[in-house]
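Shipment paperwork, digital attachment
Item: protein structure file
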Amino acid sequence: MNSSVPTFLDKSDPRLKLTVENRRRNIFVTQLEDTRHKEEENVNHVPVVTETASRLLRAGVNTLQRTLVLEKQAELKEVGKQLALKRQEYKSHVQALAQRRSELEAKQQQTKELAYKFEEFVSDNETKRRRALKKYQDAQQQSILKQREIEDLTGQLRKLQLRQQVLKERLAKYKIYEDYLVKTLEYLPKSYLKYGSGSLVMPIIRRHETLSVTHQELLQSLEHKEEELEHSQQQLHTLKQEHNIKQLMANQKLSELQTQWERLKEKNKQTEINIQTNRDQARDQAEEGGSILMAIHNLAEQCYLPAYGPLGNMNVLTMMDMVKEYILEKADTEKRAKKMMDCGSTVTSGTALVDKRQRGSLKSINSKTQLKSSSKISRKSLTFR
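Attachment content:
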Protein backbone atom coordinates (compact mmCIF):
# COMPACT_ATOMS: atom_id res chain seq x y z
CA MET A 1 0.00 0.00 0.00
CA ASN A 2 1.28 3.44 -0.88
CA SER A 3 2.03 5.54 2.20
CA SER A 4 1.75 8.94 0.44
CA VAL A 5 -1.26 11.20 1.13
CA PRO A 6 -3.96 10.98 -1.61
CA THR A 7 -4.58 14.04 -3.75
CA PHE A 8 -8.24 14.45 -2.71
CA LEU A 9 -7.40 14.81 1.04
CA ASP A 10 -6.94 18.24 2.54
CA LYS A 11 -3.49 18.60 4.07
CA SER A 12 -4.70 21.35 6.37
CA ASP A 13 -7.11 18.99 8.13
CA PRO A 14 -5.91 18.81 11.77
CA ARG A 15 -7.07 15.22 11.99
CA LEU A 16 -4.41 14.22 9.52
CA LYS A 17 -1.58 15.95 11.44
CA LEU A 18 0.44 14.20 14.10
CA THR A 19 1.37 16.68 16.82
CA VAL A 20 4.45 15.72 18.86
CA GLU A 21 6.41 17.55 21.43
CA ASN A 22 10.16 17.46 21.90
CA ARG A 23 10.59 17.31 25.60
CA ARG A 24 13.82 17.72 27.41
CA ARG A 25 15.16 14.70 29.15
CA ASN A 26 15.37 14.51 32.88
CA ILE A 27 19.08 14.62 33.44
CA PHE A 28 20.97 14.70 36.73
CA VAL A 29 23.22 17.73 36.81
CA THR A 30 26.63 16.20 37.29
CA GLN A 31 28.47 18.16 34.61
CA LEU A 32 29.03 21.68 33.58
CA GLU A 33 26.33 23.32 31.47
CA ASP A 34 28.58 23.98 28.48
CA THR A 35 29.71 20.42 28.28
CA ARG A 36 26.15 19.12 28.67
CA HIS A 37 24.80 21.15 25.75
CA LYS A 38 27.58 19.91 23.50
CA GLU A 39 26.73 16.29 24.26
CA GLU A 40 22.99 16.88 23.58
CA GLU A 41 23.69 17.66 19.95
CA ASN A 42 24.18 13.96 19.22
CA VAL A 43 21.12 12.77 21.20
CA ASN A 44 17.99 11.53 19.31
CA HIS A 45 14.77 12.71 20.95
CA VAL A 46 11.68 10.47 20.87
CA PRO A 47 8.47 12.29 19.75
CA VAL A 48 5.48 12.13 22.09
CA VAL A 49 1.93 11.75 20.64
CA THR A 50 -0.56 14.19 22.12
CA GLU A 51 -3.65 13.10 20.14
CA THR A 52 -6.27 10.81 21.67
CA ALA A 53 -6.54 7.19 20.63
CA SER A 54 -10.12 7.44 19.31
CA ARG A 55 -9.22 10.40 17.09
CA LEU A 56 -6.19 8.60 15.69
CA LEU A 57 -8.31 5.50 15.03
CA ARG A 58 -11.02 7.43 13.16
CA ALA A 59 -8.47 9.33 11.02
CA GLY A 60 -6.66 6.06 10.11
CA VAL A 61 -9.89 4.26 9.15
CA ASN A 62 -11.09 7.15 6.95
CA THR A 63 -7.70 7.47 5.27
CA LEU A 64 -7.54 3.71 4.69
CA GLN A 65 -11.02 3.55 3.14
CA ARG A 66 -10.37 6.51 0.83
CA THR A 67 -7.04 5.04 -0.20
CA LEU A 68 -8.72 1.72 -1.01
CA VAL A 69 -11.37 3.49 -3.09
CA LEU A 70 -8.67 5.32 -5.04
CA GLU A 71 -6.75 2.09 -5.58
CA LYS A 72 -9.86 0.32 -6.86
CA GLN A 73 -10.63 3.24 -9.17
CA ALA A 74 -7.06 3.09 -10.52
CA GLU A 75 -7.42 -0.66 -10.97
CA LEU A 76 -10.72 -0.15 -12.77
CA LYS A 77 -9.08 2.39 -15.12
CA GLU A 78 -6.24 -0.02 -15.76
CA VAL A 79 -8.73 -2.79 -16.54
CA GLY A 80 -10.55 -0.41 -18.94
CA LYS A 81 -7.27 0.38 -20.70
CA GLN A 82 -6.44 -3.31 -21.01
CA LEU A 83 -9.92 -3.97 -22.38
CA ALA A 84 -9.45 -1.20 -24.99
CA LEU A 85 -6.09 -2.69 -25.96
CA LYS A 86 -7.64 -6.15 -26.28
CA ARG A 87 -10.41 -4.73 -28.47
CA GLN A 88 -7.82 -3.03 -30.68
CA GLU A 89 -5.91 -6.31 -30.93
CA TYR A 90 -9.13 -8.10 -31.79
CA LYS A 91 -9.88 -5.60 -34.59
CA SER A 92 -6.37 -5.99 -36.00
CA HIS A 93 -6.72 -9.78 -35.86
CA VAL A 94 -10.09 -9.56 -37.61
CA GLN A 95 -8.57 -7.42 -40.37
CA ALA A 96 -5.62 -9.82 -40.75
CA LEU A 97 -7.99 -12.78 -40.94
CA ALA A 98 -10.14 -10.99 -43.53
CA GLN A 99 -7.03 -10.34 -45.61
CA ARG A 100 -5.95 -13.97 -45.29
CA ARG A 101 -9.43 -15.09 -46.32
CA SER A 102 -9.33 -12.86 -49.41
CA GLU A 103 -5.87 -14.23 -50.27
CA LEU A 104 -7.14 -17.79 -49.83
CA GLU A 105 -10.14 -17.09 -52.07
CA ALA A 106 -7.81 -15.59 -54.70
CA LYS A 107 -5.59 -18.69 -54.50
CA GLN A 108 -8.64 -20.95 -54.84
CA GLN A 109 -9.76 -18.96 -57.90
CA GLN A 110 -6.28 -19.29 -59.39
CA THR A 111 -6.35 -23.03 -58.68
CA LYS A 112 -9.72 -23.33 -60.45
CA GLU A 113 -8.40 -21.37 -63.43
CA LEU A 114 -5.28 -23.53 -63.58
CA ALA A 115 -7.42 -26.69 -63.38
CA TYR A 116 -9.67 -25.37 -66.19
CA LYS A 117 -6.66 -24.47 -68.33
CA PHE A 118 -5.11 -27.87 -67.59
CA GLU A 119 -8.32 -29.63 -68.69
CA GLU A 120 -8.34 -27.59 -71.90
CA PHE A 121 -4.66 -28.39 -72.38
CA VAL A 122 -5.31 -32.12 -71.90
CA SER A 123 -8.27 -32.06 -74.31
CA ASP A 124 -6.18 -30.22 -76.93
CA ASN A 125 -3.36 -32.70 -76.48
CA GLU A 126 -5.82 -35.57 -76.81
CA THR A 127 -7.20 -34.06 -80.03
CA LYS A 128 -3.69 -33.54 -81.40
CA ARG A 129 -2.74 -37.06 -80.38
CA ARG A 130 -5.74 -38.53 -82.18
CA ARG A 131 -5.03 -36.40 -85.22
CA ALA A 132 -1.38 -37.48 -85.25
CA LEU A 133 -2.40 -41.10 -84.73
CA LYS A 134 -4.86 -40.91 -87.59
CA LYS A 135 -2.23 -39.29 -89.80
CA TYR A 136 0.23 -41.98 -88.81
CA GLN A 137 -2.29 -44.70 -89.62
CA ASP A 138 -3.04 -43.10 -92.99
CA ALA A 139 0.68 -42.86 -93.73
CA GLN A 140 1.10 -46.47 -92.63
CA GLN A 141 -1.71 -47.56 -94.97
CA GLN A 142 -0.19 -45.55 -97.81
CA SER A 143 3.14 -47.18 -97.04
CA ILE A 144 1.54 -50.62 -97.14
CA LEU A 145 -0.12 -49.79 -100.47
CA LYS A 146 3.15 -48.50 -101.89
CA GLN A 147 4.91 -51.61 -100.63
CA ARG A 148 2.34 -53.79 -102.33
CA GLU A 149 2.66 -51.74 -105.51
CA ILE A 150 6.43 -52.11 -105.33
CA GLU A 151 6.08 -55.83 -104.84
CA ASP A 152 3.75 -56.01 -107.86
CA LEU A 153 6.16 -53.96 -109.95
CA THR A 154 9.05 -56.11 -108.75
CA GLY A 155 7.14 -59.21 -109.80
CA GLN A 156 6.40 -57.69 -113.17
CA LEU A 157 10.07 -56.72 -113.53
CA ARG A 158 11.13 -60.26 -112.76
CA LYS A 159 8.70 -61.56 -115.31
CA LEU A 160 9.98 -59.08 -117.89
CA GLN A 161 13.55 -59.97 -117.05
CA LEU A 162 12.73 -63.66 -117.49
CA ARG A 163 10.97 -62.86 -120.74
CA GLN A 164 13.96 -60.78 -121.81
CA GLN A 165 16.24 -63.68 -120.98
CA VAL A 166 14.04 -66.00 -122.94
CA LEU A 167 13.98 -63.60 -125.84
CA LYS A 168 17.73 -63.18 -125.71
CA GLU A 169 18.17 -66.94 -125.74
CA ARG A 170 15.71 -67.19 -128.61
CA LEU A 171 17.50 -64.35 -130.40
CA ALA A 172 20.81 -66.12 -129.92
CA LYS A 173 19.17 -69.30 -131.17
CA TYR A 174 17.84 -67.65 -134.29
CA LYS A 175 20.98 -65.62 -134.85
CA ILE A 176 22.41 -68.30 -137.10
CA TYR A 177 19.33 -68.05 -139.31
CA GLU A 178 19.73 -64.31 -139.52
CA ASP A 179 23.35 -64.72 -140.47
CA TYR A 180 22.37 -67.30 -143.01
CA LEU A 181 19.74 -65.04 -144.52
CA VAL A 182 22.14 -62.11 -144.61
CA LYS A 183 24.73 -64.21 -146.42
CA THR A 184 22.01 -65.48 -148.72
CA LEU A 185 21.04 -61.91 -149.54
CA GLU A 186 24.63 -61.16 -150.32
CA TYR A 187 24.74 -63.96 -152.80
CA LEU A 188 21.44 -63.10 -154.39
CA PRO A 189 21.50 -61.10 -157.63
CA LYS A 190 20.50 -57.48 -157.54
CA SER A 191 17.40 -58.12 -159.60
CA TYR A 192 15.83 -60.55 -157.08
CA LEU A 193 13.06 -58.04 -156.36
CA LYS A 194 11.76 -58.54 -159.86
CA TYR A 195 10.37 -61.85 -158.90
CA GLY A 196 7.44 -60.07 -157.12
CA SER A 197 5.45 -60.87 -154.06
CA GLY A 198 5.05 -64.43 -155.13
CA SER A 199 8.58 -65.10 -154.21
CA LEU A 200 9.31 -67.34 -151.18
CA VAL A 201 11.84 -64.88 -149.71
CA MET A 202 9.51 -61.93 -149.13
CA PRO A 203 7.39 -63.50 -146.36
CA ILE A 204 10.54 -64.45 -144.53
CA ILE A 205 11.90 -60.93 -144.83
CA ARG A 206 8.66 -59.37 -143.64
CA ARG A 207 8.51 -61.77 -140.72
CA HIS A 208 12.00 -60.79 -139.79
CA GLU A 209 11.14 -57.09 -139.94
CA THR A 210 8.09 -57.65 -137.75
CA LEU A 211 10.10 -59.57 -135.21
CA SER A 212 12.77 -56.85 -135.21
CA VAL A 213 10.19 -54.12 -134.60
CA THR A 214 8.61 -56.18 -131.83
CA HIS A 215 12.00 -56.72 -130.28
CA GLN A 216 12.72 -52.97 -130.30
CA GLU A 217 9.35 -52.22 -128.73
CA LEU A 218 9.96 -54.79 -126.02
CA LEU A 219 13.34 -53.31 -125.26
CA GLN A 220 11.85 -49.82 -125.00
CA SER A 221 9.05 -51.11 -122.78
CA LEU A 222 11.59 -52.84 -120.56
CA GLU A 223 13.64 -49.67 -120.22
CA HIS A 224 10.50 -47.70 -119.41
CA LYS A 225 9.48 -50.23 -116.74
CA GLU A 226 12.94 -50.13 -115.23
CA GLU A 227 12.79 -46.35 -115.07
CA GLU A 228 9.35 -46.49 -113.40
CA LEU A 229 10.60 -49.07 -110.93
CA GLU A 230 13.60 -46.93 -110.02
CA HIS A 231 11.39 -43.86 -109.62
CA SER A 232 8.96 -45.83 -107.44
CA GLN A 233 11.82 -47.08 -105.28
CA GLN A 234 13.07 -43.52 -104.83
CA GLN A 235 9.57 -42.35 -103.86
CA LEU A 236 9.28 -45.25 -101.41
CA HIS A 237 12.63 -44.36 -99.84
CA THR A 238 11.58 -40.70 -99.56
CA LEU A 239 8.26 -41.67 -97.99
CA LYS A 240 10.01 -43.92 -95.49
CA GLN A 241 12.38 -41.12 -94.49
CA GLU A 242 9.54 -38.63 -94.12
CA HIS A 243 7.54 -41.14 -92.11
CA ASN A 244 10.48 -41.82 -89.77
CA ILE A 245 11.10 -38.09 -89.27
CA LYS A 246 7.43 -37.41 -88.54
CA GLN A 247 7.29 -40.36 -86.18
CA LEU A 248 10.35 -39.11 -84.26
CA MET A 249 8.91 -35.59 -84.04
CA ALA A 250 5.55 -36.91 -82.86
CA ASN A 251 7.23 -39.11 -80.22
CA GLN A 252 9.33 -36.19 -79.01
CA LYS A 253 6.33 -33.91 -78.77
CA LEU A 254 4.30 -36.60 -77.06
CA SER A 255 7.09 -37.11 -74.54
CA GLU A 256 7.25 -33.39 -73.79
CA LEU A 257 3.48 -33.23 -73.35
CA GLN A 258 3.57 -36.28 -71.09
CA THR A 259 6.28 -34.67 -68.93
CA GLN A 260 4.37 -31.42 -68.71
CA TRP A 261 1.18 -33.26 -67.84
CA GLU A 262 2.94 -35.16 -65.04
CA ARG A 263 4.32 -31.89 -63.63
CA LEU A 264 0.90 -30.27 -63.67
CA LYS A 265 -0.61 -33.36 -62.11
CA GLU A 266 1.95 -33.29 -59.27
CA LYS A 267 1.39 -29.57 -58.74
CA ASN A 268 -2.38 -30.06 -58.68
CA LYS A 269 -1.99 -32.87 -56.15
CA GLN A 270 0.14 -30.65 -53.88
CA THR A 271 -2.44 -27.85 -54.18
CA GLU A 272 -5.24 -30.25 -53.20
CA ILE A 273 -3.23 -31.37 -50.16
CA ASN A 274 -2.71 -27.72 -49.09
CA ILE A 275 -6.40 -26.94 -49.54
CA GLN A 276 -7.40 -30.00 -47.51
CA THR A 277 -4.97 -28.97 -44.74
CA ASN A 278 -6.43 -25.45 -44.65
CA ARG A 279 -9.94 -26.90 -44.49
CA ASP A 280 -9.01 -29.15 -41.58
CA GLN A 281 -7.46 -26.22 -39.69
CA ALA A 282 -10.51 -24.06 -40.35
CA ARG A 283 -12.81 -26.86 -39.18
CA ASP A 284 -10.83 -27.31 -35.95
CA GLN A 285 -10.88 -23.58 -35.30
CA ALA A 286 -14.62 -23.48 -36.01
CA GLU A 287 -15.23 -26.31 -33.52
CA GLU A 288 -13.12 -24.56 -30.88
CA GLY A 289 -14.92 -21.30 -31.56
CA GLY A 290 -18.28 -23.04 -31.25
CA SER A 291 -17.41 -24.42 -27.83
CA ILE A 292 -16.21 -20.96 -26.73
CA LEU A 293 -19.41 -19.35 -28.02
CA MET A 294 -21.44 -21.91 -26.09
CA ALA A 295 -19.52 -21.03 -22.92
CA ILE A 296 -20.14 -17.30 -23.55
CA HIS A 297 -23.88 -17.96 -24.01
CA ASN A 298 -23.98 -19.90 -20.75
CA LEU A 299 -22.22 -17.05 -18.91
CA ALA A 300 -24.62 -14.55 -20.49
CA GLU A 301 -27.60 -16.55 -19.27
CA GLN A 302 -26.19 -16.65 -15.74
CA CYS A 303 -25.17 -12.93 -15.75
CA TYR A 304 -28.22 -11.56 -17.61
CA LEU A 305 -29.02 -7.85 -17.12
CA PRO A 306 -32.40 -6.52 -18.38
CA ALA A 307 -30.84 -3.19 -19.43
CA TYR A 308 -29.15 -4.90 -22.41
CA GLY A 309 -32.42 -6.11 -23.91
CA PRO A 310 -33.43 -9.65 -24.90
CA LEU A 311 -30.70 -12.24 -24.79
CA GLY A 312 -31.52 -13.57 -28.25
CA ASN A 313 -30.84 -10.20 -29.91
CA MET A 314 -27.35 -9.77 -28.40
CA ASN A 315 -24.12 -10.39 -30.23
CA VAL A 316 -20.99 -11.83 -28.64
CA LEU A 317 -19.42 -8.46 -27.79
CA THR A 318 -22.59 -7.25 -26.09
CA MET A 319 -22.78 -10.46 -24.07
CA MET A 320 -19.18 -10.05 -22.91
CA ASP A 321 -19.80 -6.41 -21.95
CA MET A 322 -22.86 -7.51 -20.01
CA VAL A 323 -20.88 -10.20 -18.18
CA LYS A 324 -18.17 -7.68 -17.37
CA GLU A 325 -20.68 -5.17 -16.00
CA TYR A 326 -22.38 -7.91 -13.98
CA ILE A 327 -19.07 -8.96 -12.42
CA LEU A 328 -18.15 -5.34 -11.63
CA GLU A 329 -21.57 -4.74 -10.04
CA LYS A 330 -21.22 -7.85 -7.94
CA ALA A 331 -17.75 -6.81 -6.83
CA ASP A 332 -18.99 -3.30 -5.99
CA THR A 333 -21.95 -4.70 -4.03
CA GLU A 334 -19.64 -6.98 -2.13
CA LYS A 335 -17.34 -4.06 -1.28
CA ARG A 336 -20.24 -1.95 -0.03
CA ALA A 337 -21.60 -4.75 2.10
CA LYS A 338 -18.22 -5.41 3.64
CA LYS A 339 -17.70 -1.66 4.18
CA MET A 340 -21.00 -1.41 6.06
CA MET A 341 -20.15 -4.47 8.12
CA ASP A 342 -16.69 -3.20 8.95
CA CYS A 343 -17.61 0.34 10.06
CA GLY A 344 -17.59 -0.54 13.77
CA SER A 345 -14.70 -2.99 13.75
CA THR A 346 -11.21 -2.35 15.08
CA VAL A 347 -8.13 -1.44 13.09
CA THR A 348 -6.87 -5.02 13.19
CA SER A 349 -10.13 -6.47 11.87
CA GLY A 350 -10.28 -3.64 9.32
CA THR A 351 -6.80 -4.53 8.10
CA ALA A 352 -7.77 -8.20 7.76
CA LEU A 353 -10.88 -7.30 5.79
CA VAL A 354 -8.81 -5.07 3.54
CA ASP A 355 -6.49 -7.98 2.81
CA LYS A 356 -9.45 -10.20 2.02
CA ARG A 357 -10.90 -7.57 -0.32
CA GLN A 358 -7.56 -7.24 -2.04
CA ARG A 359 -7.44 -10.98 -2.58
CA GLY A 360 -11.01 -10.89 -3.87
CA SER A 361 -10.18 -8.04 -6.25
CA LEU A 362 -7.16 -9.95 -7.55
CA LYS A 363 -9.39 -12.96 -8.17
CA SER A 364 -11.94 -10.79 -10.00
CA ILE A 365 -9.17 -9.24 -12.12
CA ASN A 366 -7.89 -12.74 -12.99
CA SER A 367 -11.43 -13.83 -13.91
CA LYS A 368 -11.82 -10.69 -16.08
CA THR A 369 -8.54 -11.40 -17.83
CA GLN A 370 -9.67 -14.97 -18.51
CA LEU A 371 -12.96 -13.67 -19.88
CA LYS A 372 -11.08 -11.27 -22.16
CA SER A 373 -8.84 -14.00 -23.51
CA SER A 374 -11.87 -16.23 -24.09
CA SER A 375 -13.65 -13.36 -25.86
CA LYS A 376 -10.62 -12.91 -28.12
CA ILE A 377 -10.67 -16.61 -29.08
CA SER A 378 -14.46 -16.52 -29.62
CA ARG A 379 -14.15 -13.54 -31.93
CA LYS A 380 -11.49 -15.35 -33.93
CA SER A 381 -13.81 -18.35 -34.24
CA LEU A 382 -16.64 -16.05 -35.37
CA THR A 383 -14.38 -14.58 -37.99
CA PHE A 384 -13.54 -18.05 -39.33
CA ARG A 385 -17.22 -18.86 -39.51
